């Protein structure tokens, strides 16, 4: 078993290799040609090896690197190739919302899976995308990693900013044995949302340590509005936690202005990265892929 970390996921890939019993780990040599095209080369003895390739696809460049790495690893004679995409870009376009739109997540998945014996991701936005794969596709959860972190922090109530996050917040509430609520979210546009407290079941948030939980923090609009709304309930502290911390533009600073703590897993390199999904990815690989 050999682990290769693409440029977007080098640190996490190394952590996964450690979790896999210090499996040999390598990174590719990557450069750009003068015309902007990517060039890369993988080293190590991959002939006949099972290879785990770890690369998030936050940008289009990351995606091109992933596809080139898959091909390079096959060229090097790898036996089985398990492709781990901790943050799967384009996952939120999981259906055609308006006539003429692509199902972007499915479109990319088709190309990624061609060279893969299995695909592993973390907290995929929608189960529709995993279901569209023809190769075995698995989803690790970011919840256990965040739970390991929150067990060491003060938490009284968990909050999902929208109904879409209800299963996630319920699972966390079970792990931490804490109550939860879900806010009502209305998206105005890609950067603005309106949030309101649910009509019933809020309970008393006064003087409580509240943690808002989301799968992705992108522009930060959702978390900022949720934190402002919760702050009016005279809570003791507000923390925000997510699996995928994109923190576009000034999202990190805007959230830190309204929340006491900000936590993210390491599916993407970011300043709030405090919990690692490496053990969860490694366990899933061993359970579903390596032993299959
Ligand atoms: C939405 O369905 C997701 O769960 C997140 O709430 C959303 O993507 C966060 O985006 P933003 O940080 O831009 O509000």
Q: Report the major sheet.
A: 6 strands, parallel
Number of helices: 9
Based on the coordinates given, report the CATH architecture of the largest domain.
3-Layer(aba) Sandwich
Category by helix and strand content: alpha/beta
Percent strand equals 25-35%
Tell me the number of structural domains. 2
Overall body shape: globular
Radius of gyration: 20 Å
Tell me the number of strands. 16
In the predicted model, the low-confidence regions spanning at least 5 consecutive residues are: none
Give the N-terminus to C-terminus distance in angstroms.
14 Å
What name does the CATH topology of the largest domain carry? Answer: Rossmann fold
What does this structure look like?
The protein is of the alpha/beta class. It has two domains: 2-141 and 277-290, Rossmann fold; 144-275, Rossmann fold (3-Layer(aba) Sandwich). It has helices spanning 10-19, 60-75, 104-113, 127-131, 143-150, 166-176, 221-231, 251-256, 278-290, and strands spanning 2-5, 25-26, 29-32, 38-41, 51-54, 81-85, 118-122, 137-140, 157-160, 180-182, 184-187, 193-196, 209-217, 237-245, 261-265, 273-275. The strands form four sheets. The chain has a six-stranded parallel β-sheet, sandwiched between helices. Strand 6, helix 3 (104-113) and strand 7 (118-122) form a beta-alpha-beta unit. Helix 1 (10-19) crosses helix 9 (278-290) and helix 5 (143-150) crosses helix 6 (166-176). The longest helix has 16 residues, at 60-75. The model has no long low-confidence stretch (mean pLDDT 95). Bound molecules: ribose-5-phosphate. Ribose-5-phosphate (R5P) binds at residues 161, 164-165, 193, 214-222.
